[in-house]
Amino acid sequence: MASAWELLSSERQGQAGRRVLVAKTFRMPDGSQETCTVTEFAAGAAAAVVALTVRGPGGRAEQYRPAPARLRAELPGGGVDPGEPLADGAARELAEETGYVPRELAYLGEMRYDGYSGMARHYFLATGCERRHDQRLDPGEFVTVREVSPGELLTLAMAGAMTDPGGVLLALPYLTGDPQVRALLASPPLRSAGAP
User: Fold this and answer.
1) How far is CA 193 from CA 161, 189, 190, in A?
2) Using an 8 Å Cβ cutoff, are 148 and 60 in contact?
3) Spacing of C-alpha 115 from chain mean position
4) Each residue of 111-128: pLDDT tens digit?
5) Among candidates 150, 158, 146, which has minimal Cα distance to 177?
6) Residue 137 contacts by C-beta under 8 Å, 6 or more apart in sequence?
7) What is the β-pairing status of strands 58-65 and 45-53?
8) Nearest-CA neighbor of 141 among 107, 93, 193?
């Protein structure tokens, strides 16, 4: 039977880039002790945005990512500065990476990457986005902005072809007005059993 583990200690082990490694020791339900190494996000919180322009298409980012060693589609986003409200951080990251400024910004929810990561990403829906300025990227950041329809965004998420499909899932109730999204939901594409 699953039950909560009792945290006995938590010790920072080091940092790899923006990720902090933490050794957490727990008392297990059977009384034994187990130490797990988990990752935390050094900035504390991260936010990403499903952005819809005034014309309807959404903006998405494309960046080279070192772990998969290829370009990946993703939602614009990044670390929230200490003391910065989540919504302000999301709007700032959207503007920095894409130049888009939203008319409205709504909180969608939080998702975690996996059971050994304490990193949470907070997702927002930005509507009425207009490009107001050029990108203002951080040093070492190289982002290509592409406009995609809500249906194309859902296709990328369903195919596992982007880094934040969870944000698209959280935005799904707001995207169902798009005919391509409704068609995908009515007849989702099947992947073969051997597909990666």
Assistant:
1) 17, 13, 9
2) yes
3) 16
4) 987 787 878 899 999 999
5) 150
6) 96, 97, 143
7) antiparallel
8) 93
pLDDT (mean) for 62-67: 86
Cβ neighbours, 10 Å, residue 55? 8
Angle at CA of residue 99, ends 120 and 49, nearest 5°:
25
CA distance 89 to 176: 27
pLDDT of residue 138: 86
Distance CA 47, CA 60 (A): 14
Extract the runs of DSSP E, i.e. beta strands, from the chain. 6-16, 19-27, 33-41, 45-53, 58-65, 70-74, 77-80, 100-101, 104-112, 120-131, 144-148
Average pLDDT, stretch 163-181?
90
- Residue labelled with tokens 């194309």: 152
